[in-house]
Automatic annotation (TrEMBL):
The keyword Ion transport does not apply. Keywords: Membrane, Transmembrane, Transmembrane helix. The lineage of its organism: Eukaryota, Fungi, Dikarya, Ascomycota, Pezizomycotina. This is Rhodopsin domain-containing protein. It is a multi-pass membrane protein. The keyword Amino-acid biosynthesis does not apply. Belongs to the SAT4 family. One of its GO terms (cellular component) is membrane. The chain crosses the membrane at residues 12-31, 43-65, 85-105, 117-138, 171-195, 202-221. It comes from the Eukaryota. Residues 27-268 form the Rhodopsin domain. It is found in: Membrane. InterPro entries: Rhodopsin_dom_fungi (IPR049326), SAT4-like (IPR052337).
Length: 389
């Protein structure tokens, strides 16, 4: 890719964060509105931030299509005018989006803050963010008089604000923005420092904070390219890096703030996965490794485990074997040796009793009459009735 045309870089970053932010906020909407039903002000601020960020990305994409990221010498006057107009709208969209993202994160902290100094710190940071965003918006709108000079002529002209004053205001606002970003990150660490959490939850929170530090670093990276905004001769190409970092900063804030609320969904997915694995293990038959008869083709075989009720009576053929030098070995010695082998293989050695044949009961009248006469009960009663005394 030629360095003289950086429009594809601007387009790639804009499209990437468009997809990621919409996915993250949709997951947040599902968790808060459908899963836990705990919709709050932080969710409303985040949805509003997504809307303004989407407008910002659309303006940036249009500006890149018409020449943002390219040298103005290779562009027509109409393309230059269109690109400058949409970059002007991007500056306003950045200020508003950044304010709404900070409001969403601050409102999320207020839902879990307990200590008084935590709550006061959140309010101070939110008010500071609002003031900085308001000043930034007015500075963008009033930097040229009339406003159309910004895109009809060039952003740096005698009819626009002085270069030194412009850089001073922008560096001040960017410094305050970076301070609020890092303050929010450190405040989250202080609020969660003494909270007892599971190991999985602690890793999840640490990952979110680590990801949020990238957004804080992007604020500092944006300040490194702040001097390019006074390059009026080649404004579209010179401000490519600051435009990219202006996309990364609020984009990471939206993603990190939305992922922080997705833990109930992640916990449910983990439980569902464990349940499916348990069901699969229960449905599979249990097999044990048993020793089979040695054959040239297979020395071991897998046989399904059987219950004791599936085993029939074992018939032992008492065969006497004669071993030279040891005498005769009868069936009892073989049975003892088989029990020793069973103990070595850790198999329970059970004593099987012959099973009774099931069928209709037999009326053994002959035996019952015989017992009755032998016992004297039936004979004595018959004698009393039939033989008179």
């Amino acid at each position: 890719m030629s360095r003289d045309n950086r429009s594809p870089e601007v387009l790639a970053v804009a499209i990437l964060f468009f997809v990621l932010t919409w996915v993250a906020v949709c997951v947040r909407f599902y968790v808060r509105a459908g899963l836990t039903r705990t919709w709050g002000y932080d969710d409303s601020y985040m949805v509003a931030a997504l809307c303004t960020f989407t407008v910002y990305l659309v303006c940036q994409i249009v500006a890149a299509v018409h020449g943002a990221g390219r040298h103005q010498a290779y562009l027509s006057h109409s393309d230059t005018r269109t690109a400058l107009l949409f970059l002007y709208l991007c500056e306003l969209g950045y200020a508003v989006t950044n304010c709404l993202v900070k409001f969403a994160i601050g409102s999320l902290y207020r839902r879990v803050a307990v200590k008084r100094w935590h709550i006061w710190s959140i309010w101070v940071l939110m008010v500071t963010t609002f003031v900085c965003s308001l000043v930034h918006s007015f500075q963008v709108m009033l930097q040229c008089a009339p406003i159309s000079v910004f895109w009809n002529q060039q952003p740096v002209s005698p009819k626009c604000m002085d270069k030194g004053l412009t850089l001073g205001v922008r560096y001040t606002l960017a410094s305050a923005n970076a301070m609020t970003d890092w303050a929010l990150g450190l405040l989250a660490v202080c609020m969660l420092w003494h909270v007892e959490m599971e190991r999985r939850t602690r890793i999840f929170v640490a990952g979110i904070l680590a990801f949020a530090t990238i957004g804080c670093a992007s604020t500092i990276m944006r300040m490194c390219y702040m001097h390019t905004i006074v390059n009026g001769n080649d404004f579209l190409y010179a401000t490519t890096d600051i435009g990219i970092w202006s996309t990364v900063e609020p984009g990471i804030g939206i993603i990190a703030g939305s992922i922080a609320t997705s833990q109930p969904l992640i916990r449910r997915l983990i439980c569902c996965r464990e349940s499916v694995q348990a069901l699969r293990q229960d449905s599979l038959p249990q097999y044990h490794l048993t020793k089979a008869t040695h054959s040239p083709s297979n020395s071991h075989s897998y046989q399904p485990s059987l219950a004791l009720s599936d085993l029939g009576p074992m018939e032992l053929n008492f065969i006497t074997s004669h071993i030279p030098g040891l005498g005769s070995v009868d069936a009892e010695s073989k049975l003892e040796s088989s029990r020793d082998v069973a103990e070595d293989m850790e198999l329970p050695c059970t004593k099987h009793e012959p099973m009774m044949q099931q069928g209709p009961p037999k009326l053994e009248l002959r035996k019952s009459f015989r017992n009755s006469f032998n016992g004297g009960s039936l004979a004595s009663s018959f004698a009393k009735v039939c033989i008179p005394q």
